[in-house]
Automatic annotation (TrEMBL):
Belongs to the UPF0065 (bug) family. InterPro entries: BUG, Bug_dom1. Gene3D superfamilies: Bordetella uptake gene, domain 1 (3.40.190.150), Periplasmic binding protein-like II (3.40.190.10). It comes from the Bacteria. The lineage of its organism: Bacteria, Pseudomonadati, Pseudomonadota, Betaproteobacteria, Burkholderiales. It comes from Bordetella genomosp. 8. This is ABC transporter substrate-binding protein. Pfam families: TctC. Keywords: Signal. SUPFAM superfamilies: Periplasmic binding protein-like II (SSF53850).
Length: 324
């Protein structure tokens, strides 16, 4: 009887250990099916380009298809809400950008909470923005622009890709830092705003960096970031010019629904960090697009997102920015 009882206990222990091994094996098999990277903006946008480059490399790294799905609209909020409500299994992810933090500050009735509903997975990188003016203004430096803007409040106007977009909020921050007041003219997209700048319909545009610094129609006065961009080496940084507090860029990263399995987060993060060291990715994103790549831990990216969310809530409150 004692011998039988001992054997029974051994059997239970063996069964339990097999369950643990089976569970661990199931977790380590991630991913076992295709992964979807959701993008909150249209195909051809800068974030879409980043998503497709990273997605293609992830597919090869993980041995599973990685599908990029565009769910454009509402400044990225449709995509964010979709991913926040997706299964927490690591197969539906969001390629996040500034809009995640900005929307939290601007919108009161979102169907997601950017501070609680997402798990940071991997930081990809950040693109500087530059400030351009229409050449007809005859303004040749940042100091000249600020001096003119202060002397003539709201006489200058600026374009953007739409209310709440990065160019809009980057200019709101510029006004806060410099004390300049300008008139906002929103367009349907960044391309339309750039065309308006070149055509003289707007005076100023702060936008993700473009390869050409100056033309006969526009002049680039300054760029954000810690150092000059190889795409525009003759353009000084805001920091060089004494405006170090003007610190903003267009960042890219991957997040998933809060509660994702840790092994999935860690595996994705390790893969992305490896991809960011790939010479072809460095060439495409850094040398051709001006993206400063960031290979950091999930927690480091989470901390960055948390700080950015709080930062934009403060900026929106202090400047009285609204969606009207």
């Amino acid at each position: 009887m004692a011998h039988g009882s001992f054997s029974f206990r051994k059997l239970i222990a063996l069964s339990a250990s097999m369950l643990v091994v089976t569970s661990a094996a199931a977790q380590s098999s991630y991913p076992s099916k295709p992964i979807t990277l959701v993008v909150g903006f249209s195909a051809g946008s800068s974030i879409d380009l980043v998503a497709r480059i990273i997605g293609d490399k992830l597919s090869k790294s993980l041995g599973q298809s990685v599908i990029v799905e565009n769910k454009a609209g509402a400044g990225g909020n449709i995509a964010a809400g979709y991913v926040a409500r997706a299964p927490k299994d690591g197969y539906t992810l969001l390629v996040a950008a500034n809009s995640l933090a900005v929307s939290s500050a601007l919108y009161k009735n979102l169907n997601f909470d950017a501070s609680k509903d997402f798990q940071a997975v991997a930081y990809i990188g950040i693109s500087p923005v530059d400030l351009k003016v229409n050449a007809r203004l005859g303004i040749n430096s940042l100091d000249e622009l600020i001096k003119f803007g202060k002397a003539h409040p709201n006489k200058l106007n600026y374009g953007s890709s739409g209310v709440g977009g990065t160019p809009h909020m980057a200019t709101v921050l510029f006004e806060q830092v410099t004390g300049v007041k300008m008139t906002h003219i929103p367009y349907k997209g960044g391309g339309d705003a750039l065309s308006a700048l070149m055509g003289g319909q707007v005076d100023v545009l702060i936008n993700p960096i473009l390869g050409s610094a100056n033309t006969d129609k526009i002049k680039t006065l300054a760029i954000t970031g810690d150092q000059r961009s190889s795409l525009s080496p003759n353009v000084p940084t805001f920091k060089e010019l004494g405006y170090g507090k003007y610190d903003i860029g267009v960042y890219y990263g991957i997040v998933g629904p809060a509660g994702m399995p840790k092994d999935a987060v860690d595996k994705l993060n390790a893969s992305v960090r490896s991809i960011l060291a790939d010479p072809s990715v460095v060439s495409t994103l850094t040398e051709k697009q001006g993206v400063v790549l960031k290979a950091e831990s999930p927690q480091a990216f989470q901390d960055y997102l948390d700080r950015d969310i709080q930062r934009w809530k403060t900026i929106v409150k202090e400047t009285g920015t609204s969606l009207d």
